[in-house]
Specification:
four-stranded parallel sheet, 277 residues, 19% strand, single chain, alpha/beta
């Protein structure tokens, strides 16, 4: 088989890492496209996946997102045309499902946050199959055109699957200069550039200030974008560590005492790994 995978955000790298390996082990040819956003490209390199970079994130504004999408869709079409793909796979990338539909390529999209209304209106309606956790009620999916004929549901969390073979690497703590005698807390800021997150939330900076001022804590903050990194560094908190580049976050979470995340993926990773969150 010839398989096309599109990766548009940092967490998607972890979802597709074991799937790409499994497909290639079975003899499939797998091509990966990726959007330049957050730590996506760094994480792909970290996990030995070579993508073709197509497009970039449009920023926080609706207009910017629309412009980026208008540029990326024809670029993806040019990339995929004539390559003879048997199937296209995405994690919420409506860019991929829309392009695949236009080219007559069967596609599957997966997600586990059902309230990204516009993304799912586009992605689910264009996709051939929609793969979601059983925990999501059916009536939240049918409004996106994902009826029983499209749906494939699975038990548990996606993180249970892609973290099943994780062997935490303690070196990540040494690389970051974490003092193992302290309480190790991993923090993730809110998704400030996402359409589904439009309310300012003071809880994250308040929590960060409380933890970052304690000498019995090492708080490792994993920002989504450069602006968040600059904000955290600008607070000048003595017990806060901000990595300069993408790190093995899953090992870091597994070795932490606590995770505080204003987002879904790291919360679910902590749950799957048995770490308080």
């Amino acid at each position: 088989m010839r398989v096309w995978v599109d990766v548009t955000n940092s967490p998607h790298v972890l979802v597709f890492r074991p799937l790409i390996r499994l497909l290639r082990r079975r003899g499939a040819e797998v091509d990966v496209t990726a959007r330049e956003f957050a730590q996506t490209l760094e994480l792909l390199a970290l996990h030995g996946i070579e993508p073709t970079v197509v497009g970039h994130h449009g920023g926080a504004s609706t207009l910017g997102k629309a412009r980026a999408m208008a540029e990326r869709l024809p670029a993806l079409r040019r990339f995929a045309r004539g390559r003879g793909y048997d199937v296209a796979l995405a994690h919420g990338s409506h860019d991929l499902t829309l392009t695949a539909r236009g080219l007559g390529i069967p596609s599957a999209t997966t997600f586990d946050y059902e309230f990204a209304w516009l993304q799912h209106q586009l992605g689910c309606r264009a996709a051939t199959r929609v793969v979601v956790p059983e925990a999501i009620p059916l009536d939240r999916l049918t409004r996106y055109g994902a009826g029983p004929e499209k749906l494939r549901r699975y038990p548990g969390l996606k993180e249970d699957y892609y973290l099943a073979d994780l062997e935490p690497d303690p070196a990540v703590l040494d690389e970051l200069g974490v003092d193992r005698e302290r309480v190790v807390v991993v923090l993730r800021p809110p998704p400030d550039v996402s359409l589904y997150h439009r309310q300012a939330n003071p809880l994250f900076p308040e929590t960060l200030r409380a933890l970052g001022s304690r000498d019995d804590v090492h708080a490792v903050v994993l920002p989504r974008i450069a602006g968040q990194r600059d904000f955290v560094l600008g607070l000048g908190l003595p017990s806060v560590i901000v990595p300069e580049h993408a790190v093995d976050a899953q090992s870091l979470i597994a070795l932490a005492d606590l995770v505080v995340s204003a987002g879904g993926t790291m919360n679910r990773e902590a749950v799957s790994l048995g770490v308080p969150v």
